[in-house]
Amino acid sequence: MIHLRFARLDNVARKDKILNLFNDLHGTYKLYRFFVDNDNDICADLCYMSNGNDFNAAMFFALITTAFSQISEEVLPKVMRVMYA
């Protein structure tokens, strides 16, 4: 499991709105599971499965770069709009 923290929820009164957004995002971004952790960090989990002998660095790198790109360009602006609306 790859765990990415990409924002912090400073206003916990907005948590329900963020969770509603995540429910909507899960329909579009099926590769990720978005959530707010116990420290109010906004996170995404994605799965990369491999045993030690089958690790594919190129695939892992492509997965991580795609995740960072999608989250920073598409997801984070939506999260920020909900957090600061």
Q: How do the helices and strands line up, and which of them pair or pack?
A:
Blueprint lengths: L1 E7 L6 H14 L3 E5 L4 E6 L10 H27 L2
Antiparallel strand pairs: 1-3, 2-3
Helix pairs in contact: 1-2
Could you explain the architecture of this structure?
- With 85 residues, the protein is α+β, with helices and mostly antiparallel strands.
- It has one domain (2-83).
- Helices cover 48% and strands 21% of the residues.
- The protein has 2 helices and 3 strands; from the N terminus they run βαββα.
- It has helices at residues 15-28, 57-83; strands at 2-8, 32-36, 41-46.
- It has a 3-stranded antiparallel β-sheet.
- β2 and β3 (41-46) form a beta hairpin.
- α1 packs across α2 (57-83).
- It is elongated.
- It starts with a strand and ends with a helix.
- 12% of the residues are buried.
- The mean pLDDT is 93.
